[in-house]
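User: My advisor, Dr. K., asked me to get a structural model of this assembly before our group meeting. I'm new to this, so sorry if the format is off. These are the inputs:
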Amino acid sequence: MIFDVANETMPREELEALQLRRLQALVHRVYANVPFYKKAFDNVGIKPEDIKKLSDVKYLPFTEKQDMRNHYPYGLFAVPKDNIVRIHASSGTTGKSTVVGYTKRDVEIWGQLMARSFMASGATPKDIVHNAYGYGLFTGGLGAHYGGETLGCTVIPISGGATKRQVALLRDFGASVICCTPSYFLHLYEAALESGIDFKELPLRIGIFGAEPWSEEMRRDIESRTGITAIDIYGLSEIMGPGVGIECETAQNGLHIMEDHFLAEIIDPITGEPLPPGETGELVITTLTKEGQPLIRYRTRDITKLNITPCRCGRTLARMHRVMGRSDDMLIIRGVNVFPSQIESILIETDGLSPHYQLLIKREGTLDSLEVQVEVDEKIFSDEVKKLQQLEAKIQKNIKEFLGVTAVVKLVEPRAIQRSEGKAKRILDMR
Amino acid sequence: MKVEQISIFLENRAGRLEEVTRILAEENISIRALSLADTSDFGILRLILSDHERAKKALKDNGFTVGRTAVVAVEVPDKPGGLHSILKLLSGNGINVEYMYAFVHQSAETAIIIFRFDRTDQAIEVLQENNLTIVPGSRLYNL
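Assistant: The format is fine. Below is the predicted structure of the whole assembly, which you can bring to the meeting.
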């Protein structure tokens, strides 16, 4: 089912014409209203009227997270503050938080795009949505909330935390759709099992998971253990929040980007040069319709690739590959690029290991060392030392084979790795 | 003729073993025999207890990974060559010992050896054919 047939299935030629019109209007708007952009355009010697075709976007300067921090809090707003109806902000754990202002229309469009997302996941107005994304400055909670309501679902604004209560309400309220991070979903699943509740016996049928990178293997694991359809959703607070892109349940093969509102490019993260469709690089997004705080060529740091071939679901919107990692949390271990998601894939493929793992990177002398800690559950536990050592060796061999990195694999007790109610923290970089 | 043994995964961290014995003590469960296999970063504690069901539940509730294995308890005369004669018999029949541990019962003149075999059922057959005393669980748990 498609929520907005006209816009989601528009022929690509028409879509690109629409994108160009919107891009041209946008560059005029930011040039006139945001001093930061006027200066940035002037610095590279580009005028709004120089944008004549869509590919001219490559002449525009990038916007980086640091630019938002430098203009904290309201310096990049493109409308008077009276027109801003909502503020969201990142947690600011890695620096000053990035603040984003939304106009009434921005919030409405967001609701529409999230409604599209819910429908793409297989949800209908009849569904009950258990929304366990955090409410507040974080965009996940309210983003999913308004989207569910726009579609006409019943939304349960449970937010994060209070896991035992969440499990009880999942059962009592009979939610059919759940929104949260995939790692929190597994945490909920484990907590439910401990209380004797099997998700397979609940009406729950769709999980919309985002806000952290996860792998295809983790999807298969979640789906087989819980019987739901697990859907990947993409978004970032700087651009809008969740709903920038979502997988369709039909194909579950790439996330459709809402291209009528967001112009997506893939660039080489080192040189900044645009890459053709199909090549892997960093996703860069220009917000085509945002009023409150539009961004030009925002560097998301997310590594992915785009597929513009038509999807079986009927949508013509380009699909991005699930996020493979971040250009800024890509680990370079002894000169080899490693993304945590690659390690996760290997672990899950190695005899269905528990997906609770943690990477410890240390520097010993001048050499980096990688330790992969994996929790032992009853499925893989053996009373024979050699079998556990064989398992460690097998994981180590697979990591070496697939990634070219020598890792120390260490089995740890269940729950040794801290559970998170938000984004899973997979990396402890002690270098 | 098999005896139940539980095994527990332990990280090599101070206090983990003590945590297990504390739980068993609180549950009023007796340890009949034990062995601890250790490597540089983890250990496997194997236990024969007076009540495996309750022990398993209490340990799991406290977050431990607990496994269950069928092992064989064999009575061996406590004199030189006692163990050797059994091992000779088993190896002659192509049966491997994965691991074993032993204890001497204070009131008896025999030692009891706990064996984990690669082929448990065949091992039991061989032992029985040769009239060796296999100690049943009912006796071991209540020693």
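One thing worth pointing out at the meeting: The mean pLDDT of chain B is 91.

User: Perfect, thanks a lot.
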